[in-house]
């Protein structure tokens, strides 16, 4: 099979890489003063859902939809004040996690391009 026919999920290394990415990402988020206050003290459900969502988002099995229904991610983020500054901080946390989990620059760039579109779509409040 041609590598370009594989999903992004498969090209980055599947579930083990996505799980490590999410774990590192949330360590970064909790250390980021612009983001940490938006999250609950017990992060286990958030982390679990993010692993399911990113698995699906990058072309793996539809784990999130199978368990929780349609993601409706913009609607789910509306209760939280998402500014451009927070979206940028979120993306910076993800970039750092990707640098630790995904050695191939082209894959990181592809993932960040997809995530950037989504992060900026969630902005719902002016600075």
Automatic annotation (TrEMBL):
The keyword Acetylation does not apply. It comes from the Bacteria. The keyword Transport applies. Belongs to the truncated hemoglobin family. Group II subfamily. This is Globin. One of its GO terms (molecular function) is heme binding. It comes from Brevibacillus reuszeri. Keywords: Heme, Iron, Metal-binding, Transport.
């Amino acid at each position: 099979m041609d590598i370009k026919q594989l999903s992004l999920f498969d090209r980055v290394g599947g579930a083990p890489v996505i799980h490590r990415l999410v774990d590192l990402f949330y360590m970064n988020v909790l250390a980021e003063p612009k983001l940490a206050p938006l999250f609950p003290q017990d992060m286990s459900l958030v982390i679990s859902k993010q692993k399911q969502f990113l698995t699906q988002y990058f072309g793996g099995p539809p784990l999130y939809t199978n368990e929780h229904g349609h993601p409706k991610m913009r609607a789910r983020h509306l209760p939280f004040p998402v500014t451009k500054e927070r979206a940028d901080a979120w993306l910076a946390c993800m970039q750092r996690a990707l640098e630790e989990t995904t050695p191939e620059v082209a894959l990181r760039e592809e993932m960040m391009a997809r995530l950037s579109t989504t992060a900026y779509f969630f902005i719902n409040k002016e600075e």
